[in-house]
Design brief:
Blueprint lengths: L1 H43 L1 H12 L18 H49 L3 H27 L1
């Protein structure tokens, strides 16, 4: 029984040593593996980061397509779809501007005619309430024309 006890104690000591060494190895290698995993993930996400940065640089009034070098195969469909979206958005903005320009031109002539008639009516009437009403109409017409001028310059 003495020999068995000796083997049991050395076995327990051996298990403690193995456990301690295993824990130390894991604790020392864990930061190394964490840094390695972080590096690999960042390397894998590099193309997405490049795409994100390229999209951030695009301004609303200057929609251009994204051209990235060394793009992985997996992200090419995403970039193609974004480029198609930018082209469609640019075309919609151009159509909206053309419509606004046409509508503004179509409105400008009738507004000028109304303004001319209001001026003529102001010279013809002596009634103060009518004069006040016509002056208010003139103010509104001037506001419409100023809005047209401002909007036309902004676009």
């Amino acid at each position: 029984t003495v020999a068995t006890m000796y083997h049991l104690e050395s076995r327990i000591e051996l298990e403690k040593n193995i456990t301690r060494d295993g824990i130390l190895t894991m604790l020392l290698s864990l930061p190394l593996f964490a840094v390695l995993i972080w590096y690999i993930v960042n390397l894998g996400l590099k193309s997405i980061t490049q795409t994100t940065n390229a999209v951030k640089l695009i301004e609303p009034h200057h929609l251009q397509t994204i051209h990235l070098d060394d793009v992985p195969y997996e992200i090419i469909p995403l970039i193609d779809q974004l480029n198609q979206l930018f082209v469609q958005l640019h075309n919609a903005i151009v159509r909206e501007k053309q419509f606004a320009d046409n509508a503004a031109h179509e409105l400008k002539t009738p507004l000028a005619a109304i303004k001319m008639h209001v001026h003529a009516a102001l010279h013809e009437t002596k009634d103060e309430s009518v004069i006040q009403y016509l002056n208010n109409v003139l103010i509104l017409l001037k506001m419409f024309l100023l809005f047209h001028f401002y909007y036309h310059i902004q676009i």
